[in-house]
Design a protein that fits this description.
Blueprint: H1 3-12, H2 15-41, H3 45-71, H4 75-82, H5 88-96, H6 98-131, H7 138-165, H8 167-185
């Protein structure tokens, strides 16, 4: 295999992104897990449940964003760009980087949310067992874990319908946030990327 072929494989499978997102996910998972674990452990049961719900909602919201980006087309946003809508350039970048955005939203955030919700659920189970002096928490564990799974899967199923029918509005909303970040912090999250020509 010559150098050009190796570079072609590297570009085709975007190994640089794979390596970067794997390392970044590992580091982020550790940091967020430690923070969440300490937070949930030091809260009462009601507050711990609220944190659990927030974690599940974050996973659902990012899943919606990931699906919206992979569903969208550039054409409507080019029309916005022609009308000097400044957020349009970010919307176009989101669509052109759909693979990376989807990977981050659906896989990275989705998996981390799943891990954290499971950890938070386990902590809540121990809190309930201690409060009510339960010796065997098998039934309670089944109920809590089943509820977490049901809310997560059900929420993502509902969110998928929202993403499919409202992807332009969703992407435009995210583009507004990215535009604000660039204006206030000077950070351009996505580099300019030309659309691949077949």
């Amino acid at each position: 295999m010559n150098k050009k072929e190796e570079e072609g494989i590297f570009t085709r499978y975007n190994l640089k992104w794979v390596f970067f997102i794997s390392i970044w996910t590992f580091i982020m998972s550790i940091i967020v897990s430690v923070i969440t674990e300490n937070l949930v452990t030091n809260l009462d049961i009601v507050a711990a449940f609220i944190v659990l719900i927030v974690i599940i909602l974050i996973g659902i919201i990012f899943d919606i964003i990931g699906i919206a980006v992979t569903t969208a087309e550039e054409k409507p946003f080019h029309a916005m760009a022609a009308n000097k809508v400044e957020e349009a350039k970010f919307a176009i970048k989101l669509v052109r980087n759909a693979g990376q955005v989807s990977n981050f939203c659906n896989d990275v955030i989705g998996d981390i949310s799943g891990i954290l919700s499971g950890a938070a659920g386990t902590t809540i189970i121990y809190k309930l067992m201690n409060r009510y002096s339960l010796v065997d928490g098998t039934v309670l564990t089944i109920i809590i874990t089943s509820l977490i799974a049901a809310f997560t899967v059900g929420g993502k199923a509902f969110g998928k319908s929202i993403a499919l029918f409202n992807y332009e509005r969703i992407i435009y909303s995210i583009a507004k946030i990215l535009n604000l970040i660039e204006k206030r912090l000077g950070i351009d999250i996505f580099p300019n990327k030309k659309k691949n020509k077949k």
